[in-house]
Amino acid sequence: MALREFLNDGVEGATLVMSRRSRVARVMITALVGGLLAFHFGPVPALTWAAINLALEAGLSYLHATFRPQAKGRSSLVIRLAPAAAFSIVWSVMAALSAIHGTQSMKFAALIILFGLIVEGLKYATLSWSAMLSIVPAPFIALFLAPLLGPNFSGWDRLLAVIVMLGLAGYIADAVRLMRSSAKALETAQAEAQAASRAKSAFVAMMSHELRTPMNGVLGLAHALGTTRLDDRQSDYLEMIIQSGDSLMTILNDILDLSKVEAGKLALETAPFDIRRLGAQIHLVCNQTAQLKGLTLALEIAPQTPDWLLGDPVRVRQILLNLVSNALKFTETGRVDIRIAPRATGGIELVVSDTGVGLTPDQQGRLFSPFSQGDLSTARRFGGTGLGLAISRQLAMLMGGEITVTS
Fold this sequence. Notes:
The chain has about 400 residues and is mostly helical.
């Protein structure tokens, strides 16, 4: 690893080690181990060790408050990783002394602590070399020295301990190599998948745009043909052509919008618009469809709803139209209600409810996935591509909102 890469890696490692969650866990474990030390060695050693830990925590909290991720020099790396190394050394020395001078239970506890420190360091192996190297060496050296300095080890015992520790070192090195190799392969696979997704979105957007151009020509000529003299049979055929063309244009527009959202190229407008008028327009457009199905379509606008909002009126209309059209499509009898009201936390809430058959939890989980519908028979029975709700949720999120479903 090059020096510059190692320094950058060190900044990321320091950020990981300094996390608040890690500090809370360390304080809790310090209190537990401090009590264990006080029980076996008396209050003075336990309080001394705990005081050192608390001093390190205070220094780490100060560094966390003043930490600047853009600082990537050598001195910055040392300052930020020094507390992690100091923690590792303090804990390792305590565990080594407990293993040498403690009771059998303390010897066992010391081994658990040292191996726990090694596992803690290995946790960062795939994320930061520097964070791992600031933690792992101290407990490993303590494990190596404890049998060599212990009073109850013979020469052969010490030799066996050295051989075991060398084997452990090789195992750790191989485990780190495999973890980093797997992480690198996963990172590469994710990058390739993202690149493929971007290429797919770009291709779909291009093809949708290219298909819309001739389709606009076909629909234009069809409408022009409708102004000429036609018999009843020809008029019926022409109406079928126009309806099919409009359906295809809707699908192409949905695919184009989805590809733009996925590619991050969908531009939103910010302009004042009349939300009451927009709701009335949606009700007027969809009311005929509701009447043809024998449904009641009702619009309720709360009195405290403001007249004007700031946002993208075209996209808000698209979202509300998708929701209402979807409710009308899947409701056989009863009614569909549109409600517009301000939220107590700010913003506007648009609610579309219906008396349809409802959705199972599994169907609700798939509802906003692209090209997904309630069940396999939905597309055959009602038509559609399953893009409307997926696009609506993406648009709502782009505008700082959300769409949820209850059934």
